[in-house]
Structure formats: C-alpha cells, structure tokens
Write a structure and sequence with these properties.
about 50% helix; elongated; binds adenosine-5'-diphosphate; Signal recognition particle alu RNA binding heterodimer, srp9/1; Rossmann fold; binds zinc ion; 22 helices; about 625 residues; 4 domains; Helicase, Ruva Protein, domain 3; binds magnesium ion; 6-stranded mixed β-sheet; single chain; alpha/beta; 5-stranded mixed β-sheet
C-alpha cells in the first residue's frame, strides 16, 4: 500500500485530539504540582484544624490564592516534622486570624508563572495542530481530481498522468500482432541508439499512432516499447485532458511534457486520443473550446521539442477517421501502426502467452480454442482463460480441462447459463427451432458445421445452436452468406412448418434482425444483387459529433425501393429453401427433437451421424492445420 500525505494527515487528526486531552490533563497536573511544591502527602482540612488546636503546626504556606496550603506539622506518633498538603475551603476568612492567634509562621505565594505559560501553550497546541492539519488536508486534496480544492487553483492543476519507471512488459508478452511489433521494434532502436540515425541525418519520428479496436493490446504494446528500451513510461488518457475548467487540459499537457523532458529518453502514451484530438471546428452546436485549446497545446508541445530529444509519443485510438488532420501531418503522429483483432494464428500465440501461468490438463488443444474464438481480441482471450481457471477452481479440479474452456467460451459469447426449461410445449417448440437451425447448417454445404445444439438457456437465448467457423473470416463468398441467411431462418422455418403459421413465436426476432442485416449488406455494400456492383452505404453510419455527419448514404428514392425489393427477394428465397428442408426431413427432425429434449445438448458429430442415417450429408471443407 502506498501511504500518502493525505492518509497520514487524516489519521493523525483523531490521534491529535486524544493526545490533546492527555496533554491537557498532564499540564493541569503539573500546574498543581508546581504550586504545591514538594509536599506529596495530603491531610484533610478537619485534621489540619485538629493539629492547629493541638499546637502541632509550625508553619503554613498558602498557594493558589489561599486554596491550597503546605503545612509543616509535628507528627502525633513519632514527633517528626512533616510537610503535608491541605486543600482549604474557599471561604475560610477566620483561618488567617486563627493562625495569627496561634503565632504560626505563615506566608502566601502568588501562583507560579511558568505553570500558567505551560497551561496556555497546552490550550493553544490543539487549535494550532488542527489548523496545520487542515491546511495540509486542503493542499493535498486540491491535487486530487474533483477534490474540494479543485475550484480554488485549477489554473496550476497538476497533470493526472502516471509514470512507470519500468513497465516490466516485453515484446514477448504481446502476441499475434507481428507486423505491429516489427514496426515498433524500430522505435525501440530510436530510443536506445539515436546516434545511429542522427549520424546519417535522419529525423527521428516524434509520434506513433496505434490504431485498432479495444482490447487488441495497444496499451500493452506501448508498455512493451518502454520495457524493451528500458525507459520510463508516462501515460494519460485523452479524456483526462478535457475537464470542467477552461485551461486545465492545456496546463496538463504542459505539465506532462515538462515532466517527460526531465526524464528523457522516455515514452509518452496518450490513450483514447480521439477524446481530445477530434477534428476541430466540427460537430453539432459549435466546437468545444476547451478541447480545442488542449489540442492546440498538444500540437504546440509536439512542435516544441527537437526530434532528437528522446521523447517518443505513442497515442492509441480506434477512430483514426475523426482525428484532426493537424495531428497526422509529418512531424507529429506521422506513423500509423494498425493493431487489428488477431487471426487464428495470432489467437493461438496469444493463448500461448496467457496459458504460461495457468495449469492446463494435457488433453487441452490451444489450437481448438483458437479455432472456436473468431473475433476474440487479446483481452477477450486473456479473460477467457481466466474464466476457465475460475471455473476449474470452483469445480475443485487440478487443472483446466476442455470442459471448462468450452463453458467459458459459451459464457463469454452468449452470457450466463440459465436453468433449463420445464418439459412442455414451449420447450418442444424451442427444440424444433434449434434443430431447424442445425439441420439447415448441416445440410448446406456452404454453411459452417454445427458444433453443438443445446436447450440450456444462456443470456437472452432460450436455446442455442453453435457453429464452428471453418476458416478465417477474411473473405466470405456470396453462397456462404446465402447459406448463413438460410441457416438463421431455419429456426423460424421449423416453427412454421411443424406448428403452423398461427403458432410461430417471438423467439426468432434476433435471427430475423441478423438475416435482414446480412441481406441488406449483400445489396448495398457488396454488390451481390441485380443492382450491380455498387457500394451504396458506407460501413459506419452512426452519427458522430465529428466528421461522420457527411457520410450518410446518398441515393434516389427509386434506388431505395429497389434495394428493399432485392433484400426481400433474397430473404424470401432463403426462407423457402429452409422451409423445404423442414418438410423433406421431418422424420429425422422429430427424432432429433426427442433426443434433444431428453439430453438437453447434442454434440455436432452425433448430430451429423443421426442425420446421415436418413439423408446425404455434404462433406464440408476440412480445417487447415495452423502452422
Ligand atoms: P487496448 O489498449 O488495445 O484496449 P490492452 O493493451 O489494454 O488493449 O489489453 C488488455 C489486456 O488484454 C492486456 O493487458 C493483455 O493481458 C491482453 N492482451 C491484449 N492484446 C494482447 C496481445 N496481443 N497479446 C497478449 N495479450 C494481450
Ligand atoms: Mg488501452
Ligand atoms: Zn434462432
């Protein structure tokens, strides 16, 4: 745990309060002790009067304005002179006269001054400490984001970047992004041996932009560069620049670069740079002045240091298209490195990295996992193995088996497992729906093979049919898309053919959404319809506050209605194909449904075997082993 000043001050306050009371007590005590001088033994007032009567008192010294007396008296028993302390009643006016009468030596002493001084100090020490404590607290909290002091001194607010002297990450810890690693290897050399480049007059690049979807390892790569080069790693997130108060962002940029220059050579990593680096002067409702000032400051700082100062700025984004062009021009982030979701080989090597510290049973094939997880990023795969490890621990097993991996994949992809439905009509209908998907998937040559069919609900789904993506998702042919559309319609087709039009359910809603999406893309993006090879829509049609405003599709109403007609034709064709398969294979479907209701889950191989007893099952493309 790191102990900050703030913690110390906070915790010391109660201690101070308690300390104060003890101190006060101590001082009060001292004051009396001083006053009463050396006498330790106390004598009661009554006894004192008796002694007085008996003429045993030899002298009396009065202290504290007559409230305490030190009495010298001759002891009754051993006839020795003793000094005793007596507390006198406040009103004893006749005491003085009696002392005089008895001819006793008496004197009065003013209260001692040191005692008063110490008492005063004792009284003051607590408020002083409190004020000092509060001052510290206030000063500290003004550096804490959103702390109460923030509003008071936002102008000189400290940057909220973090610095790691040693990241401890090496290129070996980053897998599946070999091209990116190769490009960045050069950056490591810039940091380690800049002379090699400057000697021949080369200008060392200042900025590298890592572009890629979340979880692909951009942060990890940046850390690995710092780790390989053995330089400090400064990092800040773009969103942290943009604050409530004007000028904070710009001053953070200044602070960051100042600190970096003191620590050069080093890496500055700006995560989510799109938060601050969006195209200026664009967006609905005018620009964001604060953001633009921050961006301007960033641009200025990047121009402000020489290329050879040993600072390399690495920024990460998944939206390079919205970045201000000034950021991308030479001399700034002129190098772009793409960090994409890994392909099957990449996934295998990432799994290798992350299984280093996991206990895997011998039967586990990382290749099979890589095959099952198209579209998974590095972060997804790391999470997957962790989930599997948790499951293994929960099941009290020695090592992770394929069972846990499969469950973990299912869980990551489709959500938490639910409790199976009770047997009944709706369970039967769901069984037909899923077998419908699986039958189409099995009988169409172009479709990915069935991995398993299950009635165990997960996430939103009441039943699920899993397919094994056969190859990398790189290029997909027209017949493959059509097969997928038919397969996705298989569920609804089964409901309709078996139960009739009146009984179809809402269960196919999600399927239909996918179907429509795929068919529409065939027409508008991939030129796979009778509209010809035209791209009518761009990939991203979300309205962003940045540049994307302009990228709405532009075509005439006539084209629009032709698109709709084409989409409908494709879907109807596939639906009819799926329905025909249900009618043709009714016997095997009934048998599979009974089996599925009994077993809850049917494995892909078993499924294919049963279907093969009734009809010809097309041979699907074999997997190419990963080399
Ligand atoms: P990004 O910054 O691109 O969103 P991160 O670098 O933060 O992704 O990755 C999050 C985590 O996922 C990493 O800490 C690492 O455990 C894992 N990870 C992501 N990509 C990879 C990769 N290519 N190789 C190994 N691990 C990875
Ligand atoms: Mg990141
Ligand atoms: Zn379905």
């Amino acid at each position: 745990m790191k102990i900050s000043w703030r913690t110390i001050v906070l915790w010391s306050l109660p201690a101070l309060v308690i300390g104060f009371f003890i101190w006060q007590g101590a001082f009060a005590q001292t004051a009396v002790n001083m006053g009463s001088n050396t006498a330790r033994t106390r004598m009661s007032y009554g006894r004192f009067l008796d002694y007085l009567q008996a003429d045993r008192v030899t002298s009396v010294d009065l202290y504290d304005g007559g409230r305490t007396a030190i009495v010298e008296a001759v002891d009754e028993l051993n006839n020795q002179v003793e000094r005793l302390r007596v507390d006198l009643p406040v009103n004893s006016p006749d005491l003085i006269s009696r002392l005089r009468e008895a001819n006793i030596n008496f004197d009065s002493h003013p209260p001692r001054n040191e005692g008063a001084v110490w008492g005063l100090l004792g009284n003051l020490i607590f408020p002083i400490l409190l004020i000092v404590g509060l001052f510290f607290l206030f000063r500290r909290s003004s550096n804490v984001p959103g702390g109460p002091g923030q509003a008071m001194n936002f102008g000189k607010s400290k940057a909220r970047f973090s610095m790691e002297a040693k990241t401890g990450v090496l290129f070996d810890d980053v897998a599946g992004v070999d091209e990116a690693k190769e490009e960045l290897q050069e950056v490591v050399t810039f940091l380690k041996k800049p002379e090699r480049f400057t000697a021949v007059g080369a200008r060392i690049p200042k900025g590298v932009l890592l572009v890629g979807p979340p979880g692909t390892g951009k942060t990890l790569l940046a850390k690995a560069i710092a780790g390989e080069a053995g330089v400090p790693f400064f990092s800040i997130s773009g969103s942290e620049f943009v604050e409530m108060f004007v000028g904070v962002g710009a001053s953070r940029v200044r602070d960051l670069f100042k600190k970096a220059k003191e620590n050069a050579p080093c890496i500055i990593f700006i995560d989510e740079i799109d938060a601050v680096g969006r195209q200026r002067g664009a967006g609905i409702g005018g620009g964001n002045d604060e953001r633009e000032q921050t961006l301007n400051q960033l641009l200025t700082e990047m121009d402000g240091f020489e290329g050879n100062s040993g600072i390399i700025i690495i920024a990460a984004t998944n939206r390079p298209d919205v970045l201000d062009s000034a950021l991308l021009r030479p001399g700034r982030f002129d190098r772009q490195v793409t960090v994409d979701a890994p392909d099957i080989k990449g996934r295998l090597s990432i799994l290798n990295v992350h299984s280093r510290d996991k206990k895997l049973s011998n039967e586990i094939s990382l290749e099979a996992i890589a095959r099952r997880t198209p579209g998974f990023t590095g972060a997804d795969l790391a999470n997957l193995l962790n989930e599997a490890a948790i499951l293994t621990a929960r099941r009290r097993k020695e090592a992770i088996t394929m069972l846990e991996i499969d469950d973990a994949v299912d869980r990551v992809v489709a959500g938490m497992e639910g409790t199976p439905l009770m047997d009944g009509k709706s369970k039967r209908l769901i069984a037909y729906h899923e077998v419908g998907h699986a039958i189409v998937g099995t009988l169409l040559k172009e479709h990915d093979p069935v991995q398993k069919v299950t009635l165990v609900p997960r996430g939103q789904a009441r039943g699920l049919t899993w397919f094994m993506p056969n190859e990398e998702q790189g290029l997909i042919s027209r017949s493959q898309i059509l097969a997928r559309i038919s397969g996705a319609l298989g569920g609804r087709a089964a409901e309709k053919v078996i139960f009739g039009d009146a009984e179809v359910t809402t269960g196919a809603g999600n399927d239909l959404q996918q179907v429509t999406g795929m068919a529409r893309q065939m027409v508008t993006r991939y030129g796979m319809s009778n509209l010809g090879p035209l791209s009518l829509e761009t990939g991203q049609s979300e309205v962003f506050l940045g540049r994307d405003m302009m990228t709405r599709s532009e075509y005439s109403d006539e084209i629009a209605s032709r698109i709709d007609a084409q989409v409908r034709t494709i879907v109807e064709h596939c639906y009819e194909e799926a329905c025909q398969m249900m009618r043709d294979n009714r016997v095997v479907i009934d048998r599979l449904v009974d089996l599925l209701i009994e077993k809850e889950t049917i494995d892909g191989d078993e499924f294919r075997q049963i279907v093969a007893e009734y009809t010809q099952v097309p041979e699907k493309e074999r997997y190419v082993p990963i080399v």
